[in-house]
């Protein structure tokens, strides 16, 4: 029987092997649902949720993805994605770009012919993301507690098929987002999405502010929360 110490070494070796392999990623979950947000809202979509995030947004609804997960090869991920039979694939997290091999995964998914989107925090450089991927890049408002993490150099990387998403907790967040919209002329680059923090900002209130200010933004609710609430797997 292996001693506790030997098991520790073996587990450590396995972690090192996985970490050094160019083809492995740490995956929290892969599931099939309706896309709840952004431009592809409503499409049946396979979600690939990568483990880990260097941010800690106050209103984060995927804290379970911060740790754990399972090391899987890109081939294995592609096989499970294919088994769901959907045309759309969303790579999300956590912060998927916190794993460098996410770049290779995105390219492989595009090569396989999927409509691929990437949900990213806006805190990590998106320069290496395959140009075929539709990036959904957050801008973190003060209410998130992570406003200083916004990497504004990403704005220059936005393509017309990408989207910028601001999740807003209150009027101060809204005013901040409007100022950044104008400062960076975000709507000239791609669609800009404003969403209320679930349970903190009344959707109708946000809608009225957007209309009153004649903002060139698209408001959105999270479809999966309307359909399934906080149930996992959606
Ligand atoms: S960036 Fe996303 S996953 Fe990370 S803490 Fe913020 S909301 Fe959660």
Could you explain how this protein is built, in words?
It is a single chain. With 234 residues, this protein is an alpha/beta fold. Helices cover 29% and strands 23% of the residues. It has 6 helices and 9 strands. A 9-stranded mixed sheet has the order 3-1-2-4-5-6-7-8-9. Helix 3 links the parallel strand 4 and strand 5. The N terminus is likely disordered. It binds iron/sulfur cluster. Iron/sulfur cluster (SF4) binds next to loops.
List the helices and strands and how they pair.
Blueprint: H1 4-20, E1 24-34, E2 44-50, E3 70-73, H2 74-84, E4 88-92, H3 102-111, E5 115-120, E6 134-139, E7 163-168, H4 171-183, E8 191-196, H5 203-212, E9 218-219, H6 223-228
Parallel strand pairs: 2-4, 4-5, 5-6, 6-7, 7-8, 8-9
Antiparallel strand pairs: 1-2, 1-3
């Amino acid at each position: 029987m292996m001693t506790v110490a030997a098991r520790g070494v073996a587990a450590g070796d396995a972690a090192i092997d996985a970490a050094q392999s160019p083809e492995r990623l740490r995956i929290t979950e892969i599931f099939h649902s309706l896309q709840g947000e952004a431009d592809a809202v409503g499409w049946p979509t396979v979600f690939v949720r990568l483990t880990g995030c260097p941010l800690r947004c106050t209103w984060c609804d995927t804290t379970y993805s911060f740790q754990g997960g399972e090391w899987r090869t890109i081939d294995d991920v592609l096989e499970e994605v294919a088994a769901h039979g959907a045309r759309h694939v969303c790579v999300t997290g956590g912060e998927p770009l916190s794993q460098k091999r996410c770049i290779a995964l995105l390219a492989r998914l595009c090569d396989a012919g999927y409509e691929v989107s990437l949900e990213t925090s806006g805190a990590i450089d998106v320069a290496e993301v395959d140009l075929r991927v539709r990036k959904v890049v957050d801008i973190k408002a003060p209410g998130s507690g992570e406003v200083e993490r916004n990497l504004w150099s990403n704005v220059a990387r936005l393509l017309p098929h990408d989207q910028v998403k601001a999740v807003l907790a209150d009027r101060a967040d809204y005013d901040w987002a409007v100022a950044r919209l104008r400062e960076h002329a975000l709507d000239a680059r791609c669609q800009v999405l404003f969403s209320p923090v679930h349970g903190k900002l009344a959707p109708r209130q946000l809608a009225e502010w957007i209309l009153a200010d004649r903002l060139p933004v698209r408001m959105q609710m999270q479809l999966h929360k309307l359909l399934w609430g906080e149930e996992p797997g959606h």
